[in-house]
Design brief:
With 139 residues, the chain is an alpha+beta fold. It has one domain: 3-Layer(aba) Sandwich (Aminopeptidase). Helices cover 30% and strands 26% of the residues. It is built from 4 helices and 5 strands, in the order βααβββαβα. A 5-stranded mixed beta sheet has the order 1-2-3-4-5, with helices on both faces. Strand 4, helix 3 and strand 5 form a beta-alpha-beta unit. Helix 1 crosses helix 2. The longest helix is centred in the C-terminal third of the chain and has 15 residues. The relative contact order is 0.15. The model has no long low-confidence stretch (mean pLDDT 94).
Length: 139
């Protein structure tokens, strides 16, 4: 396998990033042209957006949102299905955490999809048993 590299970016191939979101099941599949602008805004507006590349191909991503001072949340971590289980997701998380710590962010949280708890616990994350995540429901 070619060498994997990790990059903190403020812009990227929006169409490829949209493909990654869709492959993870996190995005609609219709052809709305506004989606590319939305992806551009997600990348630019994230405190830290990391892409994993094999050669010139983007094969994974992850991001952190933060106030830039105290807290950060990691989200949208995914790797193309054919390359999962090869340590690329771990590399993305490590790059995000490194960037956050370099920027003096000490509280780093995330919400795991069911089934990925051991992945994150091996990287130093622990469950927060006294807390329950919430999501605003549409009215």
């Amino acid at each position: 396998m070619d060498e994997i590299s990790y990059h903190v970016v403020k812009e990227s191939d929006n169409a490829r990033i949209l493909e990654l979101y869709r492959a993870a099941g996190w995005w609609q599949t219709d052809d709305n042209p506004e989606y590319l602008k939305t992806v551009e805004g997600i990348i630019r507006g994230s405190f830290c957006f990391v892409i994993a590349k094999r050669g010139s191909e983007i094969i994974g991503m992850g991001r952190a949102i933060s106030d830039g001072v105290s807290d950060a949340y990691i989200q949208d971590v995914t790797v193309i299905e054919a390359l999962r289980g090869k340590g690329i997701g771990k590399g993305i998380i490590r790059e995000l955490v490194k960037f956050l710590k370099q920027n003096k962010i000490q509280w780093i949280g995330l919400i795991s999809e069911p089934g990925y708890e051991s992945f994150y616990s091996k990287l130093g994350f622990n469950t927060m048993p006294s807390y329950t995540p919430f999501l605003l429901s549409e009215e």
